[in-house]
Amino acid sequence: MITNDIIEWVKKQPYWQKVIAKKILSNDRITDQRLDEIFQIFKRENKLCTGEFEKEELNFSVNKTASNIPNIRWKGLASVHGVNAIRNGENLPIGDKVTLVYGKNGSGKSSYTRLLNNIFISRGDKNIMPNLYSDTTEMPKTKIVFENESGDIEELKYPDDKGHAYNKRITVFDSYSAIHDLTKETELSFSPTEFKFFDDFLLYIEKINSKFEEEISTKNLRNDFIKSFDKETSIKQAVSNLGSRSDIDQFKEIIKVSKEDITTNEQNTVRKAELQSMNIDVKKGEYNQLISNLEKCKDTIIMLNHKFSSLRLSNTKLLIEKRNEYKLISSEEGLSQFKNDNIYNLGSPEWKQFIRAAQNYYQTVERKIDYCIFCKQNIDGIMLVEKYWKYLKSDAETNLITKESEIEKIKKDFSSIECTIFTKESKLDEWLKEYQPKLYENLVDGETGFKNLRQKLVQSLESCEWDDCINTYEFNLEKIDSAIKYISTKILELNSESIQDEIEKLQAVENEYFDKLKAEKLLSDIEKFVLDSKWLELAKNCKIMTRPITLIQNQLFSKYVTGEYVKVFNEECKKLKAEFSAEIKQRGSKGATLNKLTVKGKRPSDILSEGEQRSIAIANFLAETSIHNNNICIIFDDPVSSLDYKRREVIANRLIEEAHQKQVVILTHDLTFLLALQNKCEEQGIEHLTTTIRKIQTTTGIVEDSIPWIGMPVRSRIAHLKNKLQKLTSNYNKITPDQPGSIKEYEEGAKFWCEQLRETWERCIEEILFNDSVQRFSPAIHTQRLKKAPFTTELYTEIEKGMAESSNWVHDRASGLGEETPEPEVLKKYLDDCEAFIKKNRPK
């Protein structure tokens, strides 16, 4: 099996080629995007680019594609537009077996052939022209009609669907392709479909190669980066050493600018500026002020540590707990005396505030009263009021009031604590951010911590509920002491004599830093330069070769095609009686196998007659189409030479014989050949459809579902005359005295009808009396048919009578004779007599 051999060969190819092969064998279209992806696979496989390279498991199992090939039948062309010499909207019907299309020279037949050459597989004349007589420019188009095995109609559009698989199952032969096959090398149009794999495979391989060569041309190998570095630094040295062997990751590490580098450079810049424009006394004053401010921060923190010490926190917690104990006792002991008084919200804060306020108000009254101070009702003897005063004077309530007063006092104390450790946006703030960022963070965090602790304490004192999240917070003063020590060291350094040495060291570090920045800006170009250098080194060893593809194709072609093709060609030459020692010579050419017909090493056109050349070309065409199992139809345009009438019968017989295998369509201007084809169809029992392409006045390309009158048998002529007689009868019945022109129209029609009836009687002599043993368009005499020929003198007399009836009044007669034009009833009698004669005397 061809596919198996192809797959075995593919499995030995690089992975990227396997991906292409898989797509082709799976009938998947390779888009430009997918081709770019395959190009990336090619580069990864050859280490020409970075990225993960995961090989997908490719399943090359053989699928039986025969079952996927639909069983279709071509039904013809519909609605032809924009083709010269074909009337717009014309249809060309195609029969299921044989289709015979007759067209005289100038009828538009050649335009149909050119259109078919463009739609289907053909090496013929494809020079299709737009309609020259149309006022508008309309591009050639038509519908190609197919019928599937379910009987459903499928329509394709030309030129939109020109490459559709259905169109590749039909092939066309014309005189142009015959000359081409006889004089030039040709590539088989119908090699087994499996060989199309190599055409597609080679196409995509060449596209990948084009992309590869294009990318090679874009690579830059000049190291111009060194011009950007004028200081003697380690960075400059690293740049000058760049090349195909450079480790780009190592280079990136060398030029990497870290956060530490940025911080160091900022500090060095400041330090360098300080050293270059330093006023030692002023600087000492600034340092001493910083120490003073840090000491103040230290004092504030000591105060805060004390205020929020663990002792104060534990005392505060204890105070809240005591207050809550007294409250509970007050509630349990003091309130029990009111249990039978049915008082709303007894013991609530609002209730307590109410009775305390009442007591305070009552104490302001200077005389004793025995009525309610609110409503003036008499309260003498009511014990509830006395209970209120007794409750307020109890020990538990007194202690509770004392603790709540203490809580209010301590709450005010905590609320008033100022937790700001240092002033923001101050000199100290700026210095801490720049030189002591960790201490700065600690001070900010400490300030936030004290504020949060203060807030929680105040909330607990307000709610009288201790928050278990409250923990002791104490700021460690060691870092402040370290900062003070750091500043003191700086004050001592102001007295050093090595300031200039320090400036030079800072400048050297600065040069390295700025060269790193330059290198970072150039990094993308540098990286590309290094990658291009490495890429080109690898690319030298990557060559995409197409010769192995051509070699395997030719090997498989010789194995599966050449022998069968040559065998069938020789058989076809025998069938066509064209045994002239013709040979097929083949050679491989870049993914294709080319064929050339020769006779004794010479071109057939230099040795053979036109008829002999045509026979060999047809044999080659039939051999080529036979090796393609998916071919459903073959089309011939004038397959015989008008100069070689002896070969008409042989070619006609062979073409009709092929109709047992597939659809056969034959276009011809040779009426003799047309009749020969019709006879062969009848002899072989092949169904055939005959149509005629006509030119009517100036309009060409008109298709009629009929055959030329001169080629019609008597049966068809009788049917034709019946149809014409119906029209004549209709015209006759419309004749009125006020329309004399209608009489003339009927007379002319009747005259032409009678002429055709007379010609039908003449055809009866050939077809009925002599049983087609002698035919006017055939040079052969079929003597065997004379055995059944019914010719007698009596029959001749009957024919002569019928011919006389239909023609006596047709010829020019003297006007004085005054013969009347026969009425339709008379014409019908003439026709009935002819039909009866045919039925009665047709040979059995």
Automatic annotation (TrEMBL):
In the record, biological process GO terms are: DNA synthesis involved in DNA repair; double-strand break repair
Query: For the Protein CR006 P-loop domain, which residue ranges apply?
Result: 95-733
Extract one GO molecular function annotation from the record. ATP binding
By its UniProt entry, which SUPFAM superfamilies does this protein fall under? P-loop containing nucleoside triphosphate hydrolases
Kindly give the Pfam families that the UniProt entry links to this protein.
Answer: AAA_13
The name of this protein is Hemin importer ATP-binding subunit
Gene3D superfamilies in the record: P-loop containing nucleotide triphosphate hydrolases
Provide the alphabetized UniProt keywords: ATP-binding, Nucleotide-binding
Q: What is the lineage of its organism?
A: Bacteria, Bacillati, Bacillota, Bacilli, Bacillales
